Amino acid sequence: MAEMFTGKYNHSIDTKGRIIVPAKFKKNIGEEPVVSLGIDGCLDIYPRDRWEAFVESLDSLPGNLSKVRNIRRALMANSTECEIDKQGRILIPQWLREKVGLDKEAVFVGVGKKIELWNKEKFEAIDLSDTESLEELADGLSEYNISF
Asked: Is 60 exceeded by the pLDDT of residue 111?
């Protein structure tokens, strides 16, 4: 079974747009991860093999639906292959940083098969520690046969 990404880590982005990948993530992300626009105002970072599997799943959707074509365009046009340098940093292109408001402080969040990279203020605005909210979220997933 492939490694899962969990946890959150705060890191600074330097003036060139480089950010150190947390050591816990670096060992499983590979040397050439793919960074893509996420759907919640963050960036998604995929190991190469998981990105390829994700693209295959998109390709399996019916191409005659405009929603499918548009999501393919949006995700593929707003993704790029990146390299991790010898210092363990990844360069996030300026155009992607601008789309999600990444400036100086960012948060890496492990969400299973991928990593999300958030503007720190945006991420902190989502109160994930509120017990009542977590209970409401869990209740809303009951139809998917997920046990907590």
From this structure: yes
Q: Tokens 């991928």 correspond to what residue?
A: 114
Structure tokens at 4: 């899962």
CA separation for the pair 142, 98 (Å, rounded): 37
DSSP 118-144: EEHHHHHHS-TT-HHHHHHHHHHTGGG
pLDDT bucket at 122, cuts 50 / 70 / 90: very high
pTM (two decimals) = 0.88
Q: How far apart are CA 102 and CA 80, in angstroms?
A: 16
| Cβ burial 68-89 (10 Å sphere, 16+ → b, else e) | eeeeeeebeebbeebebeeeeb
- E-state strands within the chain: 8-12, 18-20, 34-37, 43-46, 79-81, 89-91, 105-110, 115-119
| Largest Cα–Cα separation, the chain | 46
